[in-house]
Write a structure and sequence with these properties.
Elements lengths: L11 H20 L5 E9 L3 E2 L2 E2 L6 E9 L4 E12 L2 E15 L5 E11 L7 E9 L3 E8 L8 E14 L2 E13 L9 E12 L2 E10 L18 E10 L1
Antiparallel strand pairs: 1-4, 1-14, 2-3, 4-5, 5-6, 6-7, 7-8, 8-9, 9-10, 10-11, 11-12, 12-13, 13-14
InterPro entries: CHP02001
Pfam family, one: Gcw_chp
Length: 244
């Protein structure tokens, strides 16, 4: 795969996001409380797609996630996922933390930060800040990254997620997202779009989802885009997860 070299960047948001996530996770784990909840999940995906593009080079990916929710609304967690960047297998580690509060209207708001680290592509590490609103079946989130995938690219990403019950434990899930590269030093890259439509089913602690995903092209200057691969702009992805 042909690629353009960029100088390695140490994004401030990565350090801030990691510090926030770890700073939240460690003290919260020691607080306990009847309403506190700790959970985890293991999952296998036929293709690890992130915002429409593959982070596993079209191959399957195993993932492990840990989460903690505090009674006061603070939450934190981490995820390990198999990835493939620049034709090299590696592990992506992501930590996140934030605060969520319910409004009188029944909606809730949240704000937080996340940080991602790639074991064999450290110059692709990056952090994001995010904020969002959610109801029982609909959620809207806005993300900002000052150094997307470690590059000198500022990005804003907005996503809309929702679901509708169909029959029993079966539901329809939908997602739409748009990534905008914010101008810096005169660079103005075209926006990218992605969508997902799928069916999800739950059986006890097991969950399965079959979804169709699509993404727009990366634009004329692909070398300036992050180093994640896209064997196809469209894919049918199957995922199975167990929660504990």
């Amino acid at each position: 795969m042909r690629e353009r070299r960029h100088a390695a960047v140490q994004p401030p948001a990565l350090r801030a996001g990691a510090a926030l996530a770890l700073g939240l996770l460690l003290p919260l784990l020691g607080m306990g409380g009847a309403a506190a909840q700790a959970s985890g999940s293991v999952a296998l995906l036929s293709d690890y797609r992130f915002r429409g593009l593959s982070l596993s080079d079209g191959a399957s990916s195993a993932q492990l996630g840990l989460n903690y929710d505090n009674p006061q609304g603070w939450y934190a967690g981490a995820q390990a996922a198999g990835a493939n960047l620049r034709e090299r297998d590696m592990v992506q580690l992501t930590a996140y933390g934030g605060l969520a509060r319910r409004l009188a209207s029944g909606w809730s708001w949240e704000a937080g930060a996340s940080a991602s680290h790639f074991s064999r592509a450290r110059d692709s590490d990056y952090g994001e800040w995010y904020a969002g609103l959610a109801s029982e079946r609909l959620g809207l989130r806005l993300y900002f990254s000052p150094h997307y995938f470690g590059r000198d690219l500022r990005t804003a990403y907005v996503e809309l997620n929702g679901f509708a019950p169909l029959h029993g434990q079966l539901k329809l899930v939908v997602h739409a997202g748009a990534l905008r590269y914010l101008p810096r030093d005169g660079a103005d890259l075209p926006a990218r779009y992605d969508a997902r439509l799928g069916l999800a089913a739950a059986l006890g602690d097991w969950n399965a989802q079959l979804a169709w995903l699509a993404a727009s092209s990366r634009g004329p200057d692909a070398g300036a885009s992050p180093y994640y691969t896209a064997p196809s702009k469209r894919a049918l992805v199957l995922s199975v997860a167990y929660t504990f």
